[in-house]
Amino acid sequence: MTFFAAATLAASTLSFASSNDCAPHPREQWVSAAEAKTKIEAQGYSISSFKVSDGCYEIKGRNKDNQRVEVSFDPKTLEMVEFEHESFFD
What we know:
Elements: H1 3-14, E1 15-17, H2 33-42, E2 46-53, E3 56-62, E4 68-73, E5 80-85
Antiparallel strand pairs: 1-5, 2-3, 3-4, 4-5
């Protein structure tokens, strides 16, 4: 594997981001915080912090591989819009 290919692969596994902000949705269209937490935990995350940030649901916690993560989700669709794992916290 070339250095460029390895670097590209590493970068793609470290961070996924389409935007720091979620699309603006009226609050009544948002998935409730309780339901969002349940669905996010069902994806294998353990949540230590859950908040609204820049119009997104944002969690801090650990993924199924026990890595520290910070992930933002669209509050209407629960689509992931930003992902960082522990290498960003060191």
